[in-house]
Each structure stands twice: as C-alpha cells, then as structure tokens.
Amino acid sequence: MVSNAHSGRSHRRILAEHGLDRAFGVQVYSDEVGIRKPNPRIIELAATALGVTADRCWYVGDTLDRDVVAGRRAEVAAVVVTRSHHTDAPPFGVAAEPDAVFDTPEGLADALEAAGPARSPVRTSIPAAKPARAALLIDHGGVISHSQPDPDAMGEFAAEVARRLTGAGEQVAPAQALELIEKGRERHHLRKQQRHRAHVETGAPLAEVQPVDFWRDLVGAELPERQRAILTAEAFDLMHLLGRAKSRRILRTGVRELLETCRDAGLAVVVVSNTINGRAVRAQCAEHDLDGLIGAYVCSDEAGVRKPDPTIVREALRVAAADPARTWFYGDKPENDAEAARACGITHRVIVRGGSTPDETVDRALTSGLVTTAVPDAGQLAALIAAEHRTDADA
Ligand SMILES: [Mg+2]
Q: Does residue 241 sit in the same domain as residue 343?
C-alpha cells in the first residue's frame, strides 16, 4: 500500500475494519514517511520493505499525474490504473500512460494471477513511448512567479520552530529560532555554490539538499542532541512549512496566456523546478489557479538533482514523451535553465528578462548561443509558440 494521505492512521483503521490489514506486506503513507507521490522514492521504499526491487512490482493507482508518473519514475514492471473520477478527467498534458486500465480491481486479480509470481518483469515487453510531442518545460521561481520575502510568515514559522525545539529545560525564543534558520539557509546557499562549481568542473551529479541534511546538519549544526533529534524527526514537515513561509509568490505577466496557448496548441506543460520542497511549488501553482494547465511537476527535491544537472530535464522530457527538437525550455537563469536544456538537445532555450539575471548576462548568453531567445514576459513567448505551432499545423 502506497498512499498520499493526510492521515495514514485513519487509512490503517479503515483497512483493519475491513479485515484487510493483514493482506498488506507494508503500508506506506506520505504523512508518516514524509515522501509524496509522484516522488518515486515512496514506491522504492515499499518495494525494499517487501524485499524486492521496484522492477519486480506492479503499481496500481488511479491518478495519471501522481500514480502513473510515480510508477514510471520508479521503473516498476507495470503501471495499472483502476478507473475512478480521476482517470476520467486527467489533467492536461501528462504523457505517462498506464500499461493497463481496469474498471474494477476484479480484472486486476485475474491479470496478476495470469502473470504468475515467477514471471520476469513485463516492462521489457512494453514499447517505450515515442518521443514525438512538442512540449513546454517551464521553471517556477522567477518565471511562473516572482518571490517576495515574507517576514511575517517567516516570523510565524520561526515561532513554530521555537515551540518545537523548546523542552527538557531548554527554552528557545522565536528570535533564536529565526537566527538558526537563517544561518542554516546561508550554509545551504554556500554549499549549493560549491556543489554547482564541482558539477561544472567535474560533471559530478548536482544533488539537491534533503530535508534531514538541511534541518539536522545545516540548521541544527550547533544544537544539542535532543534538539537535533527533533529536527531529524520533523524535517519533512518543517521543509514544507519553510517552502511556504519563505516568500510570497506573485504571478508574472502573461503566464496564464502562455499556458493556455500551449493547451490550445497541444503542447505538454511540465514544471521543472529547483526547490527545497516540490509540495510547496504545487500548492503555489494551485493558488494561482494554474494546476489545470500544468501536466506534471519535476522538482529537484524529489528528483534528487538540481539544474543544471541535465538528469532533471531528461526526466521532464520523459514524463511528457517530448521530442527535444520541438520542445521549449522557459527559464530565468541561463547558467541553470539554458545549460540543462542545451545538454538535453532542447532547441528553444528561452530566458525571461526582468528577473534575477542582469540584462548584460542574458545578452552574453544570446551571443554565445546558449540562449536562443530572450523575452520581456511570457506573453511574448506565447506569441512565438502560437506562430511556430500554427506553422506546424499548416504544414
Ligand atoms: Mg528560476
């Protein structure tokens, strides 16, 4: 059992009430393990707990953007969907397809029986989707939305951290907690720069920071063992709260128009974001009422690596079954966004001006050919995509 749940405990109770709890080798709930689908690690954890590898498992779900995408990323033997209201109204643009769809779990039982326990992974018999589609891969920070520091939200968050750290004769004030968090973020920033340099120089994978490393080792570096244990235990929840508190997001001009243009032209849309918390990115896009226009999210904390490591962009191309030659990458940092896109052979590498990158840097990247187009806002990119894909349709 692998479930995104607000309360794994209540799911466990329901299964027990139906006498089904003993039928499961392990139950993995997102609220208990701090990993949510479509992060493939949640499926890998379940497989490991069952004593097998993911490629020996079938994964059964009912949502395309979470279950099917998670199953594909974990490289399970087969992804099966049982029909529900989610499957009948899938979000636009998810190219990941299940190997089979069943109306009820009944048909599934027969299929599993037919497959038999000793059969080799069925994945080998499934042809890979042909990467033929055009797609828009879009960055989040600075591109979909600008961030504005939110000191009030950070103050509230620091008070919450202080409350959690206080105990056993150790009193932590909100101001102290805020200082710890800021120091942790500074260390994180320095480490990001070091790792970026190492990636550029040696091609070493550019790992994204994981919650426990951030909270226990970067924020809690100088804290006593008891407080470090609290940070270890609550790291996943704290990372989500930090992701929400650190900034207010302001939607950039033309983004909705751009995504609607992609929908109308049949381009898959995948968000590719360097972030400490993909869950917060999804929530922010939902708050801007964009989630219906976004097919999937590939976030660095879930993918394990950050841009400019091309692995994360390759994953987005795979999720969208996109042809890099017909794909647009839209970002705000040439050295992260355009570099990763170029390494994956993506033709259109578009950078928006007016963000964190000075105009001169954008101009240099245009001259060198790293960036193919610079636009003042997403509306202009919408016009370019509309023109290009109208030509496609006419041809
Ligand atoms: Mg950005």
A: no
